[in-house]
Amino acid sequence: MALIPEGVLRMGSDEFYPDERPVHERPVAAFWMETYEVTNADFAVFVADTGYVTVAERELDPADFPGADPVDLVPGAMVFTPTVDRVDLDDWRQWWRWQRGAYWREPSGPGSSIDERMRHPVVHIAFEDAVSYAAWAGKRLPTEAEHEYAARGGLVGARFAWGDDPYPGGIPQANSWLGRFPYENLGRGGTAPVGAYPPNGYGLYDMTGNVWEWTTDYYSPRHLLPSDGPVDAGGRPMLLATASAEPGFAQPRRVLKGGSHLCSPDYCLRFRPAARSPQAEDTGMSHIGFRCAHDG
């Protein structure tokens, strides 16, 4: 783990997506952050030690899916599948599919394997899975502010973890989508082994790109500010401690940070520290993983 010094984060961005606004200051206490994303090898040790069964492996309760065909209510997860040609980028169903039997050990479905991917980040991780692993490891998940602060690596106001150019000198600095999304990928075409790209200023790898990472914050469609209500000792609005930050959703949604290997400038320019995405707590996908933090 790397020790992240205390400081004041200029959180968010006014340049890109509405939910990253407004830019505001947030104090961050010193804490420790894992240098790498949790890998398949790491998670395998956890499962072997505890017998833990991930959310993607569990039977589904028909009561949670009224009207659904019972034949479809089987364990599985969402798997990215590239299209053959151009598609409507407003319809994510063109490239995401529900795959029966997909879970962390068989990430593309039955018959797939992680045997050659033990140093890749574990995927198909729901929020509960990440929290359970962190507790077993004697750690915790980071807050959204901690993740963004650590991802910036000491750079203030830069668009990316390394500066303002997404590809300085034409060289990718993170595992993101290269080419036309979602049918032409000139990059890796999936996750990369952790540490395959340069570290940021704090010595952390893959804080942007590779896989989205869970944080503890509940999602809200814009950043909540002190003027929105009481704040905690770390300056975080207390509303972010409850699901009431975003009413109207059956499943609470948490903030994912960092972007993934699917982030593309022509669709989702989110391999940036300020980027954020909502994710239902009970849903893991083939581009969602995590890393742990620890109090300073």
TrEMBL record:
Signal peptide: none annotated. It holds the Pfam family FGE-sulfatase. Residues 1-293 form the Sulfatase-modifying factor enzyme-like domain. InterPro entries: CTDL_fold, Sulfatase_Mod_Factor_Kinase, SUMF_dom, SUMF_sf. It comes from the Bacteria. PANTHER family: FORMYLGLYCINE-GENERATING ENZYME, SULFATASE MODIFYING FACTOR 1, 2. This is Formylglycine-generating enzyme family protein. It comes from Microbacterium terregens. The lineage of its organism: Bacteria, Bacillati, Actinomycetota, Actinomycetes, Micrococcales.
